[in-house]
Amino acid sequence: MRRDERTLDPNEGESEIEAIEAQWTRKWDELGGPKGDIAAIEKRIRWREEFGIIDPIVSALPQGARFLDGGCGMGEWTVYFTRRGFPTAGLDVSRKTIGVLQSLFPDTEFKVGDIRATGYPDNTFDLYFSWGTFEHFEEGFGPVVQEAFRVLKPGGVLLTSMPFDNLRIAWNAIRAPYRIGPKAPPTRFYQWRMTRAELARVLAKEGFEVEDVHIIGKRQGLQRLMQHALGMSPTATVTRGIAFLLAPFVPKIWIGHMVLAVARKRTG
């Protein structure tokens, strides 16, 4: 498990949860905030790599099964699954973003909250998914995974993705010099990175039966590589085009950006 830092922004507040809220509210604002175009939301969701992995799992559940979207961000997955007949609660720490979502989608459940203490009763949800959220707490994975276990029904499904400690990042960490001394900018904790085996062990330790851990996001990983190695914008059209062309030829373990675990709450 590898620790990532980011530059300290004193305007974000002193506590970890204040910093997380400020960081992600700013991120969603930069992306234009939540949008109310249902057709566009559905199109984006179906193009996501995660969708191809989880759709067979979701499709096997009965209509009316309850979902939790832990760290829902701009709420697109919450909206999508609610409209597919799976009542989904979107939980996020960003009060501003949740307020906008509540206005745009009054028929969908959005709630401000901390995924370490969701406030929902035991055994509430049939499926809990969380994309790129569990890793942002410096104390580690225990509290978020324990809470996921608590709110899931026995046999319920957990789907969670987080940054992958791929070979490129591991190699860079070995060869890159440490930044120390007065010129080093102040930093604060950002996230944890994990290998597939580490993620499986964390989930199993807290009572989950791990079915698979997928490496995903090769194109995203290539875009990050071009950003850090060549100074290219990761969102530029040319960067995206090069990543699209190269992705089929690069092994996932070298460049994959995320790992996605599929696990179930043990029934006994």
Question: How would you summarize what this structure contains?
Answer:
The chain has 268 residues and is an alpha/beta fold.
Mean pLDDT over the residues: 92
Q: What is the radius of gyration computed over CA atoms, rounded to a whole number of angstroms?
A: 19 Å
CATH classification, class level: Alpha Beta
Q: What's the number of extended β-strand segments?
A: 9
| Largest sheet strand order | 4-3-2-5-6-9-8
The main sheet comes to: 7 strands, mixed
In CATH terms, what is the fold-level topology? Answer: Rossmann fold
| Unreliable stretches covering 5 or more consecutive residues | none
Distance between the termini: 29 Å
User: How many alpha or pi helices?
Assistant: 11
Into which percentage range does the β-strand content fall?
Answer: 15-25%
- The SSE order reads EHHHEHEHEEHEHEHEHHHE
Helix residue percentage: 40-55%
Number of domains: 1
CATH-derived architecture: 3-Layer(aba) Sandwich
Assign the CATH superfamily.
Vaccinia Virus protein VP39
- Shape annotation: globular
Sheet/helix structural class = alpha/beta
